[in-house]
Amino acid sequence: MNIFRLAGDMTHLASVLVLLLKIHTIKSCAGISLKTQELYAIVFATRYLDIFTDFISLYNTIMKLIFLGSSFSIVWYIRQHKIVRRSYDKDQDTFRYVFIVLPCIFLALIINEKFTFKEVMWTFSLYLEAVAILPQLVLLQRTRNIDNLTGQYVFLLGAYRALYILNWIYRYFTEPHYIHWIPWIAGIVQTLLYGDFFYYYFHSWKNNKKLQLPA
Amino acid sequence: EVEPPPKDEL
């Protein structure tokens, strides 16, 4: 494990836990896209099918369990919690699942490393993760401002993506035969999606004002 | 054909 990978995992973990703890503490999910959160829960559920069949390390297993538990908890809070669910603005969170999920299923079926159930599901989770943030970004654009919660959340997710790319570069040069085209390309697409957001995030941070995304 | 190593990333 290299430092980029560890830092990437930690920012990823922080993004999910910060979101969960804040929803739990302030009893509000205003500005959070339930659709993005549900897509992430699906990402973890389909990617970690190997959790009971392949043991990699205690670290690996524990992290998988935390990601599964926290992502499903967030979805539960937004959908089921009697106070939190009232702050969910369903009318603004309008991105259609089919536009995201169907292309990912289609791509995973035709572009994968091996045509087995587990492998196709794993590939699907990579494609889905790359675009799962879209409903959240659309919601941000629509409400045209970002509070600390969503700002920190998207920032931490972006940091995780950037660190994972550094991790892949590091592993490519230090480990023999470390070539994984599918996660690399999906990961780069995912990181590019954040690039646009980052521009506005830093711009607003520099000017020390509330973030306003263009219409 | 060599089996690929298990996926160790999250």
UniProtKB/TrEMBL annotation, chain A:
Location of the protein in the cell: Endoplasmic reticulum membrane
**What Pfam families does the database record attribute to this sequence?**
ER_lumen_recept
Gene Ontology CC terms: endoplasmic reticulum membrane
| One GO biological process term | vesicle-mediated transport
TM ranges are 55-77, 97-115, 121-140, 152-170, 182-202
Q: Which UniProt keywords apply?
A: Endoplasmic reticulum, ER-Golgi transport, Membrane, Protein transport, Receptor, Transmembrane, Transmembrane helix, Transport
Membrane topology note: Multi-pass membrane protein
Question: Which family, according to the similarity comment?
Answer: Belongs to the ERD2 family.
What protein name applies here? ER lumen protein-retaining receptor
Source organism of the structure: Prunus yedoensis var. nudiflora
